[in-house]
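Q&A log
Question type: sequence-to-structure
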Amino acid sequence: MALFTLRWGIISTAHVFSLISMLTSVFRRGTNDVVHKVTAVGSRSVEKAQKFIDEHVNGDKTVKAYGTYDGVYADKNVDAIYIGTPHTYHYTNALDALKAKKHVLCEKPVTCNAAELRSLIVTAKENGVFFMEALWTRFQPLAKEVKELIDSGSLGLPVVVHADFSVDFGIDKLPLTHRMLDPKLGGGAILDLHTVGQYPLIWTILALYEHPANKRTKPSNVTATMYKTPITGVDCNTSYIVTFSPNPSTGSTLAAQAVLSCSMNVAAPNPGYFKEGQPGEIARENTRTFEYVGTGWHFQADEVARCVRDGKLESELWSHDKSILEMEVFDEVRRQGGYKFPDGIEKVLS
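Response status: OK
Response body:
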């Protein structure tokens, strides 16, 4: 098969991890069917965009620097847009890119709510372009192997998933305008990019929602509680339980729960897996070592390239329904926790 080149436009110069990993030579990392080429960078000024190109794209003179995002959307040498802006801007940025008939890889969380996401998916389909949330974890070799182990049945049906993603960011020392604290930027533990609630929820979707016994049946119940920091009122600690119940109408026979949490003022504990009826004793421990060039972000970029090459409008591994489920859960968690965004932040309301 001939090598397929996907030409990227980068929106926002603040989030460079995916870009740097995408630029890692495909030949050095063993990929032989797709390659990535950054052809345009958009920032708040041409100078900022050019500085980014000089520092992170090796000063490549073929890469166009734009002082607006619109320039990137209109560039005929751009096939796909990578959006790394704060998530309160994702809807507007992605909508503009999709209407310009560009494929889109949008950072997580993909939007502020499920209604915004549904609107973007409709727009993507209307314009015949690929659209995906950048859930990089789902495309890594480790996640794929865990998925195979769960689905194999060797451990039996899953019953409970425990997942936590918590980091102590010293929020009492952050400025009130910091993205993690500012409600206008959708700050807080459940949605912010650093302590994003997607990390616990991704394992729930992989282990329970995607499980063959569940038949892609949505959760029967979500129960949540939040502690909102008095500093700005965003959620500081969030815990929620996602329940999957057998459903005769869909054929689901799965009965399981996910107990999930995320915090931005405390470090995460070390997890353990124990024998039934024997707490404290690890039942099974397997070590897998995955070595690859780069930081691991390139796996999702390769997925985008292959989907675009094959004319697909969504990925099978991280399809639209999974992002919708994710945002529906987060909407319900925020509703139960009483966390409302300031007026005007959500561009589409259900």
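Response note: The mean pLDDT is 90.
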